[in-house]
Amino acid sequence: RSFAQSLLGFLGFIFWGTAAAQFFGGVSVILMFKNYRYLFQDSYFSLPGWLALATALTLLPAGVLAVSISVKCSRNKQGILMYLLLLLLCLEMSSAVLACSYCVRTASQVESAMGFLVHQHNWTCSEDPGNSAVDVIQRKLQCCGVNNYTDWLKASSSLYHPACVPESCCKEKHAHCTGDLDHVEQLSEEGCLKKLEDHLCFSMLYIFWCCTVLSVLELLAGVSNGILMRRQPFHELRIL
């Protein structure tokens, strides 16, 4: 009983810390899909982020109750904590499954959308389009084309074969870069597809592992709380 009480109090403090981790993961996923919304056809891909935020908000009162019960047992608080732990398990399992599946499903969608943006991009060597979707992505991620800069040459081969790529492909340290292919060393080597996929999967896997670890901790909290509840006479637990 004393060990269960101590463990429950410790887990209460852990819940507060993990609430911050879940909040960070949820916000990062939501912002990522907001920043690159033109690459995703389905708006529900940000759902794991919203579920992570809901989990973070629920973890705060759950942590308060766990610490409070470890100090002084209360059948009402113990019952409410059990309900919160059940709700948290549902939220986290849903978020983990969605995050894992979306990491795989969105990869092909990102590749298709990026290829479309590159092929539909209207530009010439004499001017930089500047604020189009693909330019924003290339500047933000410091990348060029879908797989590399040669994608720009393939995209425009039916019209003409330019000796340059958009200026958004230039590395930040080269202020006078104009996208001229005579100075390939001034261009970003990596394609945008790999960077986008890495960014996407990192955010999704972060949420997945956070939810998995939290689920184990919540099961421990539920077992500890159950041990303490067994000490109470059954008629005092009718609120459940």
Description:
This protein has helices at residues 2-35, 47-71, 75-120, 133-141, 150-155, 192-230. It is mostly helical. The protein is built from six helices and no strands. The protein has a domain at 1-108 and 196-231. The chain is elongated, with a radius of gyration of 25 Å.
Topology (SSEs and partners):
Layout: H1 2-35, H2 47-71, H3 75-120, H4 133-141, H5 150-155, H6 192-230
Helix pairs in contact: 1-2, 1-6, 2-3, 2-6, 3-6
What tags apply to this protein structure?
240 residues; mainly alpha
Order of helices and strands: HHHHHH
Low-confidence stretches: 126-130
Total strand count, please?
0
- Give the N-to-C terminal Cα separation: 21 Å
Shape: elongated
Strand content: under 5%
Counting DSSP H or I runs of 4 or more residues, the number of helices is 6
Compute the average pLDDT.
79
Largest sheet: none
User: Fraction of residues in helices?
Assistant: 55-70%
Class computed from helices, strands and strand pairing:
mainly alpha
| CA radius of gyration | 25 Å
GO cellular component, one term: plasma membrane
Transmembrane segments: 7-33, 45-68, 80-99, 204-228
Organism: Urocynchramus pylzowi
Protein name: TSN36 protein
